[in-house]
Automatic annotation (TrEMBL):
UniProtKB keywords: Signal
Native source species: Duganella dendranthematis
Domain of life: Bacteria
Name of the protein this chain belongs to: Transporter substrate-binding domain-containing protein
Upper classification of the organism: Bacteria, Pseudomonadati, Pseudomonadota, Betaproteobacteria, Burkholderiales
Signal peptide region: 1-21
Family per record: Belongs to the bacterial solute-binding protein 3 family.
Length: 258
């Protein structure tokens, strides 16, 4: 996700793969399990239900991937600050936790094909007629953003927008519905979730930024595992499995590039 910071300096120490090391596919097949790291604190992507069970979009995707590989899934929860370092250290096989694919991270890890996409998106009231298509269209308007988020930075960098920062997204949505702000800006995935669970008179507005791709990272030097993982994701896209998980959590299909 855009808000996340990557701690390359912490993970670059243990990336070398011995030439004789077995491909990860052989390792997990022999073990019979796929060790998957996730945060467990980031709804609706990965979080714990009241009974303690992990749930969320990422959790369902991880279970699907493991099943299609013929493996049992073993979840390991980790704080985001150390989750990539844990992968580099071999504490688990993969991470399924909204890890954005970017050049810096690809220097450190291999990634699966993207399994989810997002981008900045506006939310507006149902009766809004202004038709905002970009941040420039919000000049002279009040825009609600998450406190400390990258969207707050983007909004403040735009000219002439009155930016109002909120600690919690539900408060932003409530102020939007009440007319105290003219629009809200959030990640399109979170926007879809908020709109799915909200009973307020609000709707999705324009997408106003670059597309972010999220994939499943694993240690470099495992071409057989990468091929198998990408085949699983391609098959899941073709048979509708990924779309079904997406509709379950977001109400829209976010497994395809917009």
């Amino acid at each position: 996700m855009l808000k996340r910071e990557f701690m390359l300096a912490l993970v670059a120490l243990s990336l070398a793969v011995p030439a004789s090391a077995a491909d990860l596919l052989a390792t997990v097949k022999a073990r019979g399990t796929l060790k998957v790291a996730t945060e467990g604190t980031y709804p609706p992507f990965n979080y714990r239900e009241k009974n303690g069970e992990l749930a969320g979009y990422d959790v369902d995707v991880a279970r699907l991937v493991a099943s299609k590989l013929g493996l049992k899934v073993e979840f390991v929860t980790s704080e985001w600050a150390s989750i990539l370092a844990g992968l580099a250290a071999g504490k688990y096989d993969v991470i399924v936790a909204q890890v954005g694919i970017n050049p810096k991270r690809e220097q450190a890890f291999d990634f699966s094909a993207p399994y989810i996409y997002s981008m900045p998106q506006l939310i507006v009231r149902n009766n809004e007629t202004a038709g905002y298509k970009s941040l420039a269209d919000l000049k002279g308007k009040k825009l609600g953003v998450g406190q400390g988020s990258v969207y707050e930075q983007q909004a403040k960098a735009a000219t002439g927008i009155e930016v109002r920062s909120y600690a919690a997204a539900p408060d932003t949505m409530a102020d939007l519905a009440a007319g105290r702000i003219d629009a809200a800006l959030n990640d399109s995935l979170m926007s879809a979730y908020l709109l799915k669970i909200s009973k307020l008179p609000i709707k999705a507005g324009a997408q106003v930024g670059a597309v972010e791709r999220m994939g499943i990272p694993f240690k470099k030097g495992n071409p057989e595992f990468k091929q198998a993982l990408n085949k699983v994701l391609a098959d899941a896209a073709a048979d509708g499995s990924l779309k079904a998980i997406s509709l379950k959590w977001f109400g829209v299909d976010v497994s395809k590039a917009p």
